[in-house]
Amino acid sequence: MFILQQRRSNNLHDLLSISVLRQRQEDLDYVQEYRPLKEDIKHLRVLLYGHVGAGKSSFINSVSNVLRGRMTIPALTSAMTSDRSFTIKYATHKFSKGRGSSKTFYPVVFNDIMGLEDGNNSGIHPDDIKLALKGHVKEGHKFNPAGKLEDGDFGYNPSPSTDDKVHVLACVLSANTPQINASVLQKMKKVRETASELGIPQIGLMTHIDSACGEIEKDLKNVYRSKHLQKKIKDFSSAVGLPLNCIFPIKNYSDEIDMKEDVDTLILSALRKIIDFGDDFIEKC
Ligand SMILES: Nc1nc2c(ncn2[C@@H]2O[C@H](COP(=O)(O)OP(=O)(O)O)[C@@H](O)[C@H]2O)c(=O)[nH]1
Ligand SMILES: [Mg+2]
């Protein structure tokens, strides 16, 4: 009897693994083949917004790994640098496709911005985030938490192209915090509302799901079974005002040496949704 049950459970696990693999491949093909339909748009721009340590840089690294199918040299993460200017600078992250003379870039780019620190004089000014959403912030601009960017400043782009504008806002939050800071959530809600006013679609990425839940750490496939994570996602949803089905649980590549299919699956599923949302917005631009 026990052996029969064990066999059934093994079969179910195998079936689940096969369907996860299939989904992963389908999402990967979709993402790799994506092209914005509008000809004047070179790329879809995603803005990652969240507190220091939420996993924004790690998400960019993870996307890079998944697209290349191997570990890539990481952009600096918080654990590797204490230089805050690294995140204060407005920089576009691109992902290369192919090698040598046939090298091109994927038509999806990321910017990350932190602006959720506690206190008034830290983090990026909320008005600057609005300017970034509208495409007014020039590449390489160093944000000044004490003063906002003004028309006429060197870092101000007075006439942004559709490419410069943000097409999707992704709010990044770590699941591995006992209590999510209320002021952090309030700021995130405000930025999300600003994006809404501009018609920009939004998505939530809940990171660190492995360190937040032992069952998930053991097996990432437990992600949709974890009551603890479900509660975290619900709290995130109601505090920031994002619908539940727009919040994606993510395990970023952090201390792995090799690629893992289950990690890829979650990253790709979020990335596919980001592309779909952004593409809908591009059509209206
Ligand atoms: N276990 C785990 N660690 C993560 C995850 N995402 C990020 N990290 C780690 O958390 C730290 C901060 O991440 P980072 O990407 O620099 O955060 P950022 O400040 O939002 O850019 C780094 O040490 C990452 O390796 C995750 O999903 N799981
Ligand atoms: Mg970072």
UniProtKB/TrEMBL annotation:
GO biological process: immune response
Residue intervals passing through the bilayer: none
Protein name: Interferon-induced protein 44-like
Organism: Cyprinodon variegatus
